[in-house]
Amino acid sequence: MDILNFFIANYKEIAYRTEEHIFIVFLAVSFAILFGVTVGIYITQHKKTADVVLYIASIIITIPSIALFGLMIPVLSLINEGIGYLPAIIAVFLYSLLPIIRNTYTAIMNIDPALREAAKGMGMTNSQRLLKVEIPLSIPIIMAGVRYATVLNIGVTAIAAYIGAGGLGTFISQGISQSNSTKLMVGAISVSILAVMADYFLLFIQNKVTSKGLK
Questions:
Q1: What is the pLDDT of residues 108-147, one digit of tens each?
Q2: Exposed, middle or buried, 116 (CB in 10 Å: 0-12/13-18/19+)?
């Protein structure tokens, strides 16, 4: 009951913190999609580069989020951006790269070679084959990577409250520092609900952009 009363009494602040949370995740994951899909496509033609890129991305995602945020502070302090939105967005961007690059790379590499030969036989250029055959066939797997990155980083962004980036993690950090279990639970529940809603929304988008023949 205390949790429900808190939601009712503080719905404006919860809505505001939710907007902050969404802003960070949306911006970071959007940049990660643009960069990650491009890199994923590029490394399908360069096996040695692929191994290096995937290895580096794997190392980044193993760094504890609080440590990565901490590393950002002295580096970005050089441009007076040590705390706030920028380090949070950069950290979430970095954490998003592995699932997006890996899924893009895997999806394109696993396309049936016969389909590529058929596209060549129709006179398609490499660019046409990529845009009209390979990417459309890869969308379900690429979107799975985007969904994973988004849900993962909605949780990671909650830690960003400790570096002044706001978001729903503010309730969690305040709940811990004030020994207030209600605030802590409100923050945790809000983050969980947001993650579930984001996953279902992206699944809806995935179904809309996936070719009917692949459903």
A1: 888 877 777 777 777 777 777 777 777 888 888 999 999 9
A2: middle
The Cα–Cα gap between 97 and 36 comes to 6
At 111, is the secondary structure helix, strand, or coil?
Answer: coil
Q: How far apart are CA 181 and CA 175, in angstroms?
A: 6
Residue 199: C-alpha distances to residues 21, 28, 170 (Å): 15, 16, 22
Q: Which two tokens stand for residue 20?
A: 């902050």
Please compute, for residue 148, the number of CA atoms within 13 A of its CA located in the half-sphere on the CB side: 17
Those residues whose C-beta lies under 8 Å from the C-beta of residue 75, and which sit 6 or more positions away, are 82
Residues 6+ apart with CB under 8 A from 68: 91, 94, 95
pLDDT digits (tens, 9 = 90+) for 156-196: 898 888 887 888 888 888 888 888 888 889 889 999 999 99
Phi then psi dihedrals of residue 92, to 5 deg: -65, -40
pTM of the full structure = 0.86
